[in-house]
Design a protein that fits this description.
The chain has 312 residues and is of the alpha/beta class. 44% of the residues lie in helices and 13% in strands. It is globular and about 70 Å long. It binds 3-hydroxy-3-methylglutaryl-coenzyme A and magnesium ion.
Length: 312
């Protein structure tokens, strides 16, 4: 199997993860979480979004989060912006990178941003050139590439076309989203073969939600095809509130554990990352789906139990 030697993990837990939580997480906890992720060695991280607080109240404190986090050299922090207003607020709050987003299917796009795909692309014309003029790189997401919660199957050509349009607009990387976690490895191969026939692998990232447990298998296929950027969320947090049935993202510790076991470097300290996820589980108030995290916590509990027994 031909695999890369290094993979960039693009951590989306503080944004994709926390946007989907029923509980309003206090700003200080969000900042603590981001700081812990950075301390684990993560170098690319989406920390919040600057969307309408009526649509995503969970991230209404984006500006405070942006101002509150430590920004060590070498760490790239990004935020999701839907329009010019989001961009202006993000820049004023100190963001140095932003991401725009749209869907491959009309119905999800409309439910998510209240616009057609064509109008969404027009709105990007008011975002991307201004961001780039301010020296701010722009990433983009294409959602529902592998299936739409409202329309079902999605033509793989949509991903190819939208990737081309976004690159022409000056976006440096397009993350292809399996928003509801329905992709299978064969489908991933099919979509990526079409996309990579026209676009270089460094311009493409993969973003899998793990609803049906296929995210790691999908990543492996992407890696064999030359993809080296994987989006994931600590603990497996995540979901899109406008995509019913969407569950958590691929868990960062699950993918990092698999990569390290295959001698692929990420620069991330798995123990510190797991600790960051454990902290997140306490402030969201429920168990997180990451398999590695569960196994790690189970091992710690068994070790504690053995230590207690040996002292009694
Ligand atoms: P709208 O209602 O059509 O637009 O929303 P509007 O311009 O009439 O604005 C509505 C209200 O929001 C107004 O306030 C605006 O001022 C305000 P009001 O006058 O009613 O008091 N507003 C804003 N406030 C703060 N920041 C802004 C902003 N823009 C408008 N930037 C809009 C259109 C796009 C704003 C809305 O639909 C929206 O915010 N949608 C965001 C939805 C979202 O964040 N979804 C989750 C992220 S996408 C995702 O998770 C998928 C991904 O992970 C990849 C994958 O998994 O596939 C990326
Ligand atoms: Mg997502």
């Amino acid at each position: 199997m031909k695999l890369p030697q290094h993979v960039t993990i693009y951590e989306v837990g503080p944004r994709d993860g926390l946007q989907n939580e029923a509980r309003q997480v206090p700003t200080a906890d969000k900042i603590r979480f981001i700081d812990a992720l950075v301390a684990s060695g993560i170098r690319d991280i989406e920390i919040t979004s600057f969307v309408s607080p009526k649509w995503i109240p969970q991230l209404a404190d984006g500006a405070e989060v942006s101002r509150g986090v430590a920004r060590p050299a070498g760490v790239r922090m990004s935020a999701l912006v839907p329009n010019r207003r989001g961009l202006e607020t993000a820049l004023a709050a100190g963001m140095k990178e932003v991401a725009v987003f749209l869907s491959a299917s009309e119905t999800h796009n409309k439910k998510n941003v209240n616009k057609t795909i064509a109008d969404t692309l027009r709105a990007f014309d008011e975002v991307i050139p201004h961001a780039r003029a301010a020296g701010v790189p722009v990433r983009a997401y294409v959602s529902t590439v592998y299936g739409c919660p409202y329309e079902g199957d999605v033509d793989p050509e949509r991903a190819v076309q939208l990737t081309g349009q976004l690159r022409d607009m000056g976006v440096y990387q397009i993350s292809l989203g399996d928003t509801i976690g329905v992709a299978n490895p064969q489908q991933v191969e099919g979509v990526l073969a079409r996309v990579l026939a026209v676009h270089p692998p460094e311009a493409i990232a993969v973003h899998f939600h793990d609803t049906q447990g296929t995210a790691l298998a999908n990543c492996l296929v992407a890696l064999t095809m030359g993809i080296t950027t994987i989006d994931s969320a600590a603990g497996g947090l995540g979901g899109c509130p406008y995509a019913p049935g969407a569950s958590g993202n691929l868990a960062t510790e699950d993918v990092v554990a698999m990569l390290h076991a295959m001698n692929i470097h990420t620069g991330i300290d798995l123990d510190k990352l797991t600790e960051a996820s454990r902290t997140a589980a306490t402030f969201v108030g429920h168990e997180l789906p990451s398999k590695y995290l569960k196994a790690h916590l189970g091992k710690q509990a068994r070790a504690r139990r053995r230590a207690e027994l040996s002292t009694t």
